[in-house]
Amino acid sequence: MESNPFPGAQQQHAHQQQEEHFPGPAAAVKELLVSMGAEEHEPRVVNLLVDFMYRYVSDTLQDAETYSEHAGKPPGQVELDDVMLAIQARSAFAFAQPPDQGEIAQLAAVANDKEMPRFPMHKHGLLIPEDKDSLTAQNYQLG
Which residues form a coiled coil (predicted)? Predict the structure, then answer.
């Protein structure tokens, strides 16, 4: 019996052959990952993204059908406007929207306008701000 100097090589080759034969949606997700620069990833990432895609699309289409029925259309008749409304409603709550850069700049300006607390110069050692100036101070009252 001949021993293989690289025992993992056959398993790796079999794994690569298995990855090459994805079903349609998984192949599209894999191609999308590669096009975005994620060439190395765990195989289960593709399965998780396909699962997310199916769940998102089916939930969105169910929402669109609900909106369509609410608009008085016959059951099962979903139009593009219904789907667009469902996508907008779902994306408003399902995904975190980044804050507006203008709002962030305004908040930063307000925070930066406040004068930093002064520390006494005659103290030695670690200078810690007073409780009223500390971010870890108690900021609530009971009762």
Answer: none
Distance between CA atoms of 139 and 143, rounded to whole angstroms?
Answer: 14
- In terms of residues, how long is the chain? 143
Domain span at residue 54?
Answer: 15-111
SS3 24: helix
pLDDT digit string, tens, across residues 97-137 = 788 999 999 999 999 998 887 767 777 777 777 777 777 77
Tens digits of residue pLDDT in 2-36: 555 545 444 444 444 445 566 788 889 999 999 99
CA distances from 65 to 52, 60, 121 (A): 20, 9, 69
> Is residue 77 included in any domain, yes or no?
yes
